[in-house]
Amino acid sequence: MASGRRPRLLVRLFRAATSSALATGISQVSLIGLLWWGATPMVASAVAFVAGAIPNYFLARRWAWGRRGTPTVTGELLPYLLVIGLAGLASVGLTTLAGRLTEPLDLSGFVRIVVLDAVFLTGYAIVFVMKFALLDRLVFHREERTRGSKSPT
């Protein structure tokens, strides 16, 4: 990759998937721990999503999209929060729905956690491709969106 340029599409996709996998791992630990301690599926999945989304922003922004400098609020942060928020709502919604659907089945604690975790992961997988496309095309599509970054030569 030339200095000052963002990586090619397949490199961005691989790096975004890798940073997303790391974020998913953080989210998984949070989700399973919170469910184990008795949190509702909605609370557990919402906290787990945020726990993964914060480090994912910094890692993906720099590594996957090659962004440097201070992000602009309207050019990068707000669109990022919108895209991630929609992805989070999808994951939290699916996990909450699964929690409500499994409640009458009277599943044991461990089995219920496995089912809810599988739904949470499925939600992540479903929205990843759409999230990547939106981040790539709407949020991180131009290099001049950050303050303090060097201009491409």
- By secondary-structure content and strand pairing, the structural class works out as mainly alpha
Helix content: over 70%
Number of domains: 1
Which parts are unreliable, with pLDDT below 50 for 5 consecutive residues or more? none
The H-and-E topology, N to C, reads as: HHEHHE
| Coarse morphology | elongated
N-end to C-end Cα span: 13 Å
Number of H/I helices: 4
Mean pLDDT: 82
Supply Rg: 17 Å
User: What share of the residues does DSSP label as strand, in percent?
Assistant: under 5%
Number of strands: 2
The major sheet is characterized as: 2 strands, antiparallel
Strand order in space, largest sheet: 1-2
Characterize the quaternary organization of these chains.
Answer: single chain
Quick summary:
By secondary structure, the protein is mostly helical.
